[in-house]
Request: fold
Amino acid sequence: MQPNSDSRQQEVIQLLKQVIEPTLKNDIVNLGMVRNLRIVDDYIYLRLYIGCHQHQLQAEIQSVLSSISWCKKNYIQICTIPGVKTTLAISSGKGGVGKSTTAVNIAAALKLQGAKVGLLDADVYGPNVPQMLGLGQADIQVIQTPTGEKFLPLEVQGIKLMSVGLLTEANRPLAWRGPVLHKIITQFLQDVEWGELDYLLIDLPPGTGDAQITIIQESPICGVILVTTPQQVVIADVRRNIYMFRQVGVPILGIIENMSYLICGDCGSHTPIFGSGGGELLAAELQAPLLGQIPIDSRICSGGDTGYPIAITDRTSLASKVFVQIAVALNATFSRCS
Ligand code: ADP
Reply:
């Protein structure tokens, strides 16, 4: 270790902060695109996590780093998913808050906005996304590509889909297969032939364990959307989740509060049966936007069970409008990626 390695690290970080991602109008350090920065002797090593349209950032980094007199050479390892522009993760502190439901409906709403969307169901503890899109057990094809064998995602309701649940026998839990879990997840990220996608949404397993950390560290996630319900106990878990993301340097795009209120079928009044204000408090505390508040609606549940997401089947419902509002907000941030 060089005696002045800390100051060198700071010098490099300050220079990297001069590199601005033009669509997101923020620097690449703040956006979590630079990870594993190491300075060994007079060499700089870093990993750059980018979408497939952002390769120009590498030249910009090389240009700013060229001003460092002590640096003999820099090594930039590019981490991207071929063909995929924007990768977003959907996360929750706890199971059962509606994370997968939200992921499926946001994917559907983005699709309705004209985006090319893929959904990676990495929730090893409950890979329900195929069922929520109306898909039973299906055979996954493996194809030969110039970069080796790849899984071909399925396409359902205009959304490309890959799920850990599709690789295993139906009804058999995956959670006990600890030793192979990381391998499966890493393989998913590397070995799926997505084709051209505007958005890849990753439905993460709930909580803050090894599986989540592996996925986050191995993938070019632009940001995380956190799903919560209004109860204080759930909020506490989400807060833990957020600290994990902050530690690995992945930005939080916003919070979605699910099951915010029940709409009375007779008078239309809203009853906050799980309490109110939790999502708002969390958003204020974390200075992250509250992207939407989704009501409790039996059609959301039946849509999930039967494979018809409410965002597609009942576009006039309030829930559907909230999913569209979220999709529009995401598009406003990311759609100028070209
Ligand atoms: P998670 O992915 O967080 O474990 P799911 O998305 O699987 O949660 O949702 C759990 C259950 O709650 C599912 O049966 C789903 O249909 C239902 N559900 C989720 N959100 C709502 C909602 N806003 N209104 C009614 N039911 C919902």
